[in-house]
Each structure stands twice: as C-alpha cells, then as structure tokens.
Amino acid sequence: MKILVGVKRVLDHNVKVRVRADGSAVDLDNVKMAINPFDEIAVEAAVRLREAGAATEVIAVSIGPEKAQDTLRQALAMGADRAILVPHTEATEPLSVAKTFKALAEKEGAGLVMLGKQAIDDDCNQTGQMLAALLGWPQGTFASGLAASGEQIEVTREVDGGLETVALNLPAVITADLRLNEPRFASLPAIMKAKKKPLDSIDAASLGVDLSPRLELVGVVEPPARTNGSVLVASAAELVEKLKQDAAIA
C-alpha cells in the first residue's frame, strides 16, 4: 500500500507574525519557514506504518514555490521514500488542494492519504474532509491514535466524552492531531540520504487541476493591543460594581 502524505511550507511557529505595511498579507520576507507541525506528525505516522509493514511506500507531496523543496527534503529525511512538488507561487485554497491530492492519489494508486488536521497559516481544517468527499473514501479526522490491521485501519480521536475509535476500510483519508505522535529528529546521515531520494515536479495543469484562487483577500490586520488590567482586592461588591460599569453584567 502506498501512503500519500501532505506537507505544507508555512511560517515557523516560533516566529512573530508581521503584517505588511499596506495590509495586503502577512510579511514572509526574510523569515524562517518550516514544515506545518500537523503535517510533520502526519509524516511520522505514515513512516511508522511503513516500518510496521502496513505500507510499502510513503510519498510526500507539497503544493507551493520551488523553496518548498526544502520542506519536502525534511520529510524525506524523516523517512519518506520519495516526494512530489506541485509548483505554485500563489496562496493555496483547501478545495484546489483537495482536487490536486485526489488526482495524485488516483495517479499513484494510493491506499491511504494522510494530512495534518489543519495548516497553522490559515487554520482552515477543510482539506482532508473535502478530499474524502471527492474520492468517496471513509475519513478519520483529528487522529490521536492509529492501528492498522489488514484491509482496515482503526483511528482514535479525542471527543468531549473521552475517546472515540472508528474502523475504516481502506482506502481512506486520515488527518493528524497533535497527540498522535512525537515526530522524530532527522539525523545528519538521514539528511544526507534525503538529498539523493527522488523528488519529482508535476504541474497542476497536467493533473487537470486549476489552482487559481477563488477567494479574494481583502486585507490583513494585527489584533488590537491588550489594554492594561485593573486589580480589585477590596471586596466582591467592588468587583460586581466594576463589572456593571463595564457592561459585563446587568
């Protein structure tokens, strides 16, 4: 079984987000970029399934600029067997990404597609669900546990009442949550080997997919600065009176 795993290049989560002076977008000039944390967990899960004998090949896929090759090389250093870059310089949207993964899943004959539950740059949390609908495959979202068995894979996720486990018939789509695993650290030998692993480039047009944006970004603004708080220590009555003054309570 082949596993297709999505890898998105995003702003490193440790970097403070800056907005361009004209408010048109987030400023990505001269800032550190990294693999989306949820996607990194998905790569680790896919590699573990292959190591356990439940899969034969892990293929990392990214839609983005040429610099996204660095992100794919990181996935290869973690254990992915090969990588595919779909070149695209504009912002991506969940539906077009889902259509691209559908075409690649059918082209590669994948039996499982693994994605992060969301990307930390747009927080859409839509691609996995859209992809499952387009393929007509069962889906397991927000996975915090995986167990493969024959032609099925069990997906555990956290819900309000505890844990929920579902058994999916393969092929299937799974999205990874933070508690699924702890991604491995890519060693120097693994990084060197990753440079020799195949990394192909496939145009979206050859897959029959149009990546042109359908949404217009009107503007980006920073959240308002927090105001100074006040300390109330005299009495509960003083607290209630202050809340009434601020219209927090009637």
TrEMBL record:
This is Electron transfer flavoprotein subunit beta. Pfam families: ETF. Belongs to the ETF beta-subunit/FixA family. PANTHER family: ELECTRON TRANSFER FLAVOPROTEIN BETA-SUBUNIT, ELECTRON TRANSFER FLAVOPROTEIN SUBUNIT BETA. InterPro entries: ET-Flavoprotein_bsu_CS (IPR000049), ETF_a/b_N (IPR014730), ETF_b (IPR012255), ETF_beta_N (IPR033948), Rossmann-like_a/b/a_fold (IPR014729). Residues 23-211 form the Electron transfer flavoprotein alpha/beta-subunit N-terminal domain. Keywords: Electron transport, Transport. SUPFAM superfamilies: Adenine nucleotide alpha hydrolases-like. It comes from Marinobacterium rhizophilum.
